[in-house]
Amino acid sequence: MYKETVLPRVLEQVVNCKDDLAQYYLMDCIIQVFPDEYHLQTLETLLGACPQLQPTVDVKTVLSRLMDRLSNYAASSADVLPEFLQVEAFSKLSNAIGKVIEAQLDMPAVGAITLYVSLLTFTLRVHPDRLDHVDQVLGACVKKLSNIPKLEDSRAMKQVVALLSAPLEKYNDILTALTLSNYPRVMDHLDIGTNKLMAMVIIQSIMKNNSCISTADKVEVLFELIKGLIKDIDGADVDELDEEDFKEEQNSVARLIHMLYNDEPEEMLKIICIVRKHTMVGGPKRLPFTVSSLVFSALRLLRQLQGQEGDIVGEEASMTPNKIFQLLTQAANGCDIEHVAYEFFTQAFLLYEEEIADSKAQVTAIHLIIGTLQRMNVFGVENRDTLTHKATGYSARLLKKADQCRAVYACSHLFWVDDQDGIKDGERVLLCLKRALRIANAAQQMANVARGSGGPVSLFVEILNKYIYFFEKGNKQITSSAIQGLIELINTEMQSDSTNPDSVADAFLASTLRYIQFQKQKGGVMGEKFESIKL
């Protein structure tokens, strides 16, 4: 009775009344009053009336409410889903929306996109396995957006974000969204700020669900989706970026890189190449955040290669550690590729010379170089001597005497590596420490000239600690008499500057002397070594 008599006559009255308020109210009444199964079995008749309504009727709200009601009906029980398939509900709703949008040429963008959001919500509840339906809705939205020169309506922008977020929320898996060809095309219509916001939503979804992206083609699609975060988009005002927001975005990208992994080395190398291609266009502000993650991904691949059986390092192999290091320009120590590792240090020194002008940054950089070089065991005698000579040379040319002193005594560790096969050149260690002493002396004299009194003696105490360290390690060039003489020198300096006591240096020296006393009392071989030092 409803299908053949009631609904046709009611709709006839609705269409013929020509009053837009009445039409909207009556259509809403029909949708809200009659049962869900009635709407499902009479869907074609009900939808057929929508394009016949007055152009000023808010048809989008009518259709959205209908789809929301049907979506809730589908979610209520799995038993009703065959009914939706039987009546081809998605196809009928999709066609009806298309006709309404075509008929109402002046419908604002937000109205059309709201309809697509409702249709997408409907299909995700009724046909979650039909990704072609999801992509079809996204494609229809792209077609509508392509007719709009620039999407500036904030309400429409929110609806686009809702459209893009729906598949992520439904599937809890970015991999599903990456298979949708129209997904990135919809994102292209977002403004710069909203595009970045959506990119962050995608990354957060990956982190929340611990999703691992394991194929190169999906990584390519993913980085196209988040391109707003990894490079400057035309029209973006870089100067207006909030510093905290920028750091959060880039740290998110860095974390994302660790979620890209494949057990197959060939595929993993492709992934690394794609990540490198996208991140390297990020500019100097972004690279410090993202490059380190890229490097660690490559180093993980290298460990994987080393752990495999068989000859995998031959130059004829399809993938070698050499190729990976050429890609990254990063440390080659782990795979015993000396010429590549040497080239990396050469590049590091070149960057130090040409790019780092700030004195504080120079101090940080030279200590990083020294620390890295100290742990390298890949170099032959000639290459290691060249690099250590450069490191000590740059250390002695830092701007401040105190920085020079600390960098030079740090270089002493380049000549004494406490490993089984490590270098142990006691004479050159002593030369470094003596050079550091001369610099500390010069700093003391300069302070005396400038202030009429001696400078802080903390540098001498720091050098004393280095002497003690190498004395313990068995460096025969470092004698107890040398340590004794340095202690006396420090005491003399402190007494000569009694008017300006340095509490920090005093505490440091007292702690050092207590350590020597402790070693003397410990007995054994170490106790005998320290016994000759008189306090």
TrEMBL record:
Full protein name: Vacuolar protein sorting-associated protein 35
Instruction: Report the Gene3D superfamilies cross-referenced here.
Output: Vacuolar protein sorting-associated protein 35, helical subcomplex Vps35-C (1.25.40.660)
Q: Give UniProt keywords alphabetically.
A: Cytoplasm, Endosome, Golgi apparatus, Membrane, Protein transport, Transport
Q: InterPro entries in the record, alphabetically?
A: Vps35, Vps35_C
* Pfam families, per the entry: Vps35
Spell out the family assignment given in the record's similarity comment: Belongs to the VPS35 family.
Taxonomic source organism: Gossypium mustelinum (Cotton)
* Gene Ontology annotations for the cellular component aspect, listed alphabetically: cytosol; endosome membrane; Golgi apparatus; late endosome; retromer, cargo-selective complex
Location in or out of the cell: Cytoplasm; Endosome membrane; Golgi apparatus, trans-Golgi network membrane; Prevacuolar compartment membrane
Gene Ontology biological process terms in this record: intracellular protein transport; retrograde transport, endosome to Golgi
Question: What is the protein's membrane topology class?
Answer: Peripheral membrane protein
